[in-house]
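Because showing beats explaining, we think one record worth quoting, sequence and backbone structure tokens together, and here it is:
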Amino acid sequence: MFRPEYSRLIASLPATVPFVAPDVLERISGRGISLRLGANESAFGISPQAQFAILQAIGRISWYGDPESFRLREKLAHMHRVAMGNLVIGSGIDDLLGLVVRAFVEQGTSVVTSLGSYPTFSYHVAGYGGALHFVPYRDYRNDLSGLAVAAIETGARLIYLANPDNPTGSWHGAGCLDTFLHEVPNNCVVLLDEAYGEFLLPEDVLPIIPEDPRVIRLRTFSKAHGMAGARIGYGIAAAEAITAFSKVRVQFGVNSLAQAGALASLDDSRFIASVITAVAEGRDEYYVLGQKLGMPALRSATNFVALDTGSASKAQYIKDSLLQRGVFVRVPGTAPLDQLIRVTVGTPGERTAFAEALRDLAEYLCLPGSEAPNSIESDSHGPGLRGSS
């Protein structure tokens, strides 16, 4: 039988995915998920104005969407005080990450990121043959000095930095980022993933200098805007970078419903402010819960909180046990982050249900002399999924 010959790069890559989706976990485990608190989706829905705009746009779904996303770029340009030529629209940050990597990374190109940071970026780098160099977190925060030094030592062409960070929720303010940019080599591009940027205080947001060729910033409508399923995000960069992206991006890759919803959501600032307030209240509840249960919560500038269980085995056991109860949370796959449980800020009812489930487990785990039983990962998730949290 004839068998196609794949490229050497593709043939060398392991058959992995950055995340195991909750829908996949349901199919593998045979259990339904009642509390979906592991994917950092918004528990507060989308703007009513965005919902109405999407419903209106359905009547034109037989047409292709605008390949230039003109009206959305026009609105974003006004909002960020940049030219339309400084903006690219993509089907979510994951799509844009691939676009940036494709533009700057060739076989063997050195790329620097934090060890345990958002895995989809590393997934793209591997897919284009780049050489990844990892810098460990320092006290659950991205080590900015370490990243800059690694870029110098490896001759990196690209640094990836999630700020606020996923999976820890930590962040660096504008002053620290400005110092970091001055430490990075001039020929190295800093890719700032600002998926959770709406949750930062204004004074912590790095000013946008659109024609700085060293900085590319990515934003999304998946978090505060609650449009994760629509798959839409955008990048802000120097015009020359946007031109480069336009050479290879999928021209009709952003659907018309997503464009209509995103445009309307930008006009509903009151709704977005209400989401940010509700998330802040939920984070405070998680901080108190973690303190009471002996699982201190890391301060977060995102729509999730990471609870420190004290050990990787305990975190894994709690995650698996919660899944058996229909509660989906995540545990990072890299030490020492693998002792954290990452929990999305849900609605008040969801937070109450999560707190009750976690208290039940904590009472057992905190008994004097008790230890977490052996992980039941293979029973609840199926074989081959460990490390894909």
About this structure: Residues 48-267 form a domain with the Aspartate Aminotransferase; domain 2 fold (CATH 3.40.640.10).
